[in-house]
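Forwarding the complex inputs:
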Amino acid sequence: MKSDCSFLHHTDIRPLYDPGFNKPRACLGYGVGLRTCHFPWLEQHLLPRDSGVDWFEAITENFLDHKGYARHFLFKLREHYPIALHGVSMSIGATDPLNTAYLKSLRQLCGDLQPALVSDHLCWTGVNGVNSHDLLPVPLTEESLKHVSERVNKVQDCLGRKLVLENPSTYMCFAGNDYAEWDFLNQLVSCTGCELLIDVNNIYVSSVNQGFNPQTYLDGLPLDSIVQCHLAGHTDCATHIIDTHDKPVHHKVWALYRDLIDRCGRNVSTLLEWDADIPDFPELVAELNLAKGVIRGDMPERADSLRPGANTDSVQLSTPLSAHLEKAPSMFLEQQ
Amino acid sequence: MSRAYNLVERQQWLMQRILGGVQQNQYLEENMAATGPLAIEHQLAIYQQGFRLRLIECMKAEFPSLVLFLGEEVFHLFVVGFLSVNPSKHYSLYELGDGFAEFLASTRPQPQQVPKEVAEKLKIPEQLALLERARAVSLRAEGCEHRNKVTVDSFMIWPLLSLPETSILVDTDFSLFDYMRKSDSYLAKRDKGEEAIAPQPPSLQKEHILVYRNHFRVAFMRVEKWQSDVINALSYSEPCDVNWPAVAQRAELTESQLLSKLTLWLPKAAAASQIILNIAEA
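Prediction (whole assembly, two chains):
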């Protein structure tokens, strides 16, 4: 039977060889998600000493098959910074076959860019060839664990490097789950050797929405496999929380971040995500720098906005993506 | 009993609920566990509403002038209709707007169904969508930035001409060049919180607009009829197969008139990356 990744057997597309496949990860320091609205500022403050960040994370799909300015600028940044590629469409948990066109493009981009990390989410994005562009929750069953493990192994073989998987924020839970999410991640790491990106805000969001203790989640994680953390803001809708990425980090998320780093007993590459109502770059860096203080024990003094600031007026959007789309000012010229 | 559902069935179930919208809430108890403070139908609604909202936001980002022209409510209706018949099948959100102009054209009422003056204006949305889609394509396509600089030497031997993927000609029946220019300026001011006056709707006026990219910057330029004939010929022919006498005839020019116009225009067009000179690059 032909494997889903049968294209790997073609001689022209052998898996990439990553000499660091089994080496421990170095901590990249403190970074932010690369967003096109910051390109003009970063053009003027290209070097790390001017930008104030140690590394960037780029949304993978925005640079696959891209031959324009954004790709040009990404490679310019790469001359000065480590870059992580962070995907939203690998759909590692889907029952559709792995998208070989996607993997080929990703493999090509990895070869060209040499990213420090390649990550995606423990989720699926669609079935029957349709992409919802949402990070849908994986049923946490034995069947699902076997299925996801096989796919992670295929992707790692294809890319010649470890895949880093992130815990998504969830708003529902399938009936009949065999595992808690942290147990599922533990098993997945054991089965595949993949690494973890722990989004502390997602743990908090899911803990409120699903009614579990976030400390139990941290207790259950395979700490040695954590190579990256995400921080982000969320919106309180009174009855639940939405992972909107449009606000500063909530103080309870900062506390959870401190607890995670304490448990790891080492620095972990830390990244701030901001995807809607995005502030100017210096303001973003100021928020990121709070992480350094938190590790030293300086918790940001912020009011608990959980109940009084609850936003119940409108539908809030999880995983906002429109700010990732490149918008450049156009020129309007009369004919020559 | 929930154990009866396998992984495929669970994913099919959730996907159908999401694509179908909030009225699709069959078999909730069988598939979802009651966890946390929200009722399961409200938990599901977060995914159902988020799916539409997220894609609408992405379409708004690609078609800002069209949103301005139609208004948010009508634009949303068209996007929801478009996505229901053309659900996203690509990993990239940049592919989402592909085919939207054609969808708008397909939903336009037949001319005999509406008064003549209204019928003509009904083409504005699809033509605006074509222009804005051309901008999105030009932004990401393979451009001329890495090609050798065009110098006078390049023209000493008449080169074969072709179009880069970043050059897209859009023929319109309305004053969309001015409308796009004014709406871009209006939206930029509005985003900064400055006072601005929304542009008047486009008027009937045939225009040929070249969308192209130069040094990674997308530009719109009105071109003359003969230039659009040349660009169309380059779009549809291999560089060595362009039938220049036919181009001259279509442009209602003699061959010598076309040649002299090309001599004046091509150096500027090539320098601005609107066309490619296929010369042996050292």
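Residues 40-62 of chain B form the longest helix (23 residues).
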